Amino acid sequence: MNEFLVIQDIVIILLVSLPIIFIFRKINLPSLVGFLLAGMIIGPYGFKLIKAVDEIEVMAEIGVILLMFTIGLEVSFTQINKIKKFLITAGGLQFLITSAIAFLIFALAGIQINQAIFLGFLVALSSTVIIMKLLSERNELESPHGKISVSISLFQDLMIVPLFLILPILSTDKNIDTINALIKIGVAFGATAVLLFAAKYFMPPIIHQIARLRMREAFTVGIILLILGTAYITHLAGLSFAIGAFIAGLILAESDYNHQILAEILPLRDAFNSIFFVSVGLLLNIHFVINNPVLISGITISAFLLKMLIIILIVLALKYPLRIAILCGIGLGQIGEFSFVLSQAGTKFGLMETDIYNSFLASSIFTMILTPIIFQLEPWITRQTAKLKSRVDDEEVKYAEKLSAHVIIAGFGLNGKNLARVLRETGIKYIVIELNPDTVRQEKQNGEHIMFGDISREDILKIAGAERANVIVFAISDPLITRMSLKVAKSLNPSIYALVRTRYINEVDELIKLGADEVIPEEFETALQIFRKVLEKYHIPLNVIMQQVTLLRQQSYRLLRKEVMDITAFTHLDEILAQGLTETFFVNEDCAFINKTLAEINLRAQTDATIIAIVRDGNMISNPSGKDILMAGDTIILYGTHKSVDRAIELLNGGKFE
Question: Does the predicted model carry a pTM greater than 0.85?
Answer without folding.
Answer: no
